[in-house]
Design goal:
- The chain has 103 residues and is mainly alpha-helical.
- Helices cover 50% and strands 6% of the residues.
- The protein has one domain.
- The protein has a two-stranded antiparallel ribbon with strand order 1-2.
- A hairpin with a 5-residue loop joins β1 and β2.
- α1 crosses α2 and α2 packs antiparallel against α3.
Length: 103
């Protein structure tokens, strides 16, 4: 399925953010026109950031060595928590509609 140009992510979006944008727009189907805009771009950025933090944690572990070799929590844990908080702050505004209704 080809996404109409007006529903495509902005050219300025990095590829990971654009991928989340396409997922959200696809979830909304015909109602997607109502959510497209800068707020959607910000939301998608947070979801992409969360995914990257989780990927790094899976690859590198939750504990890493500091410059002196002492174990410390991976900095991606803080990034993950912050992204989750931002995503929650948007509430259900950009989650897939559960009732078939948008808004």
């Amino acid at each position: 399925m080809v996404t109409p140009a007006r529903l495509a992510p902005p050219d300025s979006c990095p590829s990971d953010v654009a991928q989340v944008w396409r997922e959200v727009v696809a979830a909304y189907g015909a109602g997607a026109e109502r959510i497209v805009g800068s707020a959607l771009e910000a939301y998608c950025g947070q979801v992409a950031r969360l995914r990257e933090a989780q990927r790094r944690l899976r690859a590198e572990g939750m504990v890493i060595a500091d410059p002196k070799g002492a174990p410390i929590p991976h900095p991606a844990l803080a990034v993950e928590r912050q992204a989750q908080a931002e995503i929650r702050a948007w509430g259900s505004r950009f989650e897939k509609p559960r009732t078939g209704r948008v808004g």
